[in-house]
Amino acid sequence: MLIPSRPTPVNSLLENIAKNPTPTNLLGEWILGQNWNESQWPERRMPNRKDLDKVAQHLPVMLWRSDLHLAVANSRALELAGITEDTSNPPHGVIGRDEKGIPNGILQDEAIDLVKRKIPVPTDIQITSAMADAIPTLHAIGITGLNDLRLMDGHDGSPTFRALQQLHNNSELSIRVWMCLLGDVLEDAIRIGLMTGMGDDLLRIGHVKLFADGSLGAHTAWLSESYADGGNGISLYPMEDMYQLIRRAESTGLSVAVHAIGDRAIHELVSVFTRLEKERKTSHETAKTPVPHRIEHLQILHTRDLISISELGIIGSVQPRQATDDIILIEKSIRDRGKLAYRFRDMLDRGIMLVFGSDCPVASPNPLSGIHAAITRQREDGTPEKGWYPNQRIQVEEAVRGYTVAPAKATGRWDTLGSLTLGKLADFIVLEKDIYTIDPALILTTRVDLTCIGGRIVYDGHDITP
Fold first, then answer.
1. How far is the C-alpha of 53 from the C-alpha of 45, rounded, in Å?
2. How far apart are CA 396 and CA 370, in angstroms?
């Protein structure tokens, strides 16, 4: 059974589980959910296994935090995974424990995989059907293309790729997909000759996804200074290994997209890219990648690294709505270092190309929600009144480019996508209001009237056909 995704307080979350005790065939006997965020709850605490045990003692339960880098499991789920007080932390994860050393159900980063491996995997038919059902929802909010990025465990990669190809073969793939590969399959990709950009107008091989650290919400983002309640996060890859992976990828025509949130992770990663650039100059070589490398998130960023990213020509892949979703979290966990967070204005002023996205399901996939966040630095309820660190607000035109021009250039598609230009593929949307001139608050409620992909109408907001 899937619990509806909404950031409700602990008690409401538990009531939701109790009201829905019957699992579906898709998930076997498991109860799964996602999108809780304790920083938005009055009690400001994470749920634990004892909380879940109160409403689901006999069925295994696992609920992911909104950032997907932390989850909470009940006792039954921990039992199925074989997690006890004697279980050691995995190399890139943490098993939360109470004061007696007993697992409390809170799992960080790759510790989640210990439980996830026990969850029944949907069939290819179920995945393909779910995708076919979901694509029209994306059309309705004006999405014509997406970057499909990988989670750390990578188990979703192969079935996802198979499902996308099946839809494509059946002429049912009505959205453009940039399909990224997990770093764990890098050697397999090289062995069969895959390169970034391979494919056609609808489905292409994208970047290789790597991870430098975790998330702020899970306290696994790697920081140079400690969190307010202690700890500096974790490094998910030794930087020498990261260097070797990126070097190997780019030598065979594969670009990388590296997840880096904390300032220490970003700094170390920039050092790796700088080292690679110096080696190219020394050997008078250029990178063999068809599109630039990317850094995903860039949430806590020092000016020295911002400048280096600009000089290296690395693309920033950022998520505007996450900035406002994280206000309470950041102010609590890193306090005044929030001034280093989500520096969109500073990055654009330094000439860094920013690709905007959502990291869905971490945040709403609606581009209009992201545009609102980028230009106001406000939550959807209009707070803070003057915006959070308002010096980082950007203009509507710049935000729109982040969802159109920049993604086209970042994926090597500028010759065919990203603008309404004679000779390009006609991907466009029609909105009911002019978002360049209306009150920014009204952008959130602006309706998509029409979505076209390749000149074909895939969504008509005025269609009343049942």
1. 17
2. 11
- What residues contact 174, with CB distance under 8 A and at least 6 apart? 135, 139, 453, 458
Residue 74 one-letter amino acid:
N
Exposure string (b/e) for 107-118, b if CB count within 10 Å is 16 or more?
Answer: bbbbbbbbbbeb
For residue range 391-429, what is the model confidence (pLDDT) as tens digits? 999 999 999 999 999 999 999 999 999 999 999 999 999
pTM exceeds 0.70, yes or no = yes
Tokens of 465: 């056909």
Task: Give exposure, 56-87, as e/b (b: 16+ Cβ within 10 Å).
Answer: beebbbbbbbbbbbbbbbbbbbbebbebeeee
Distance CA 319, CA 297 (A): 7
Q: Which segments within 102-239 are labelled E, that is strand?
A: 103-109, 145-148, 176-182, 203-211
Q: Domain 2-116, what fold?
A: Diaminopimelate Epimerase; Chain A, domain 1 (3.10.310)
Q: What is the per-residue pLDDT across 333-367, written as a single tens digit (0 to 9) for each?
A: 999 999 999 999 999 999 999 999 999 999 999 99
CATH class of this structure's domain 124-451: alpha beta
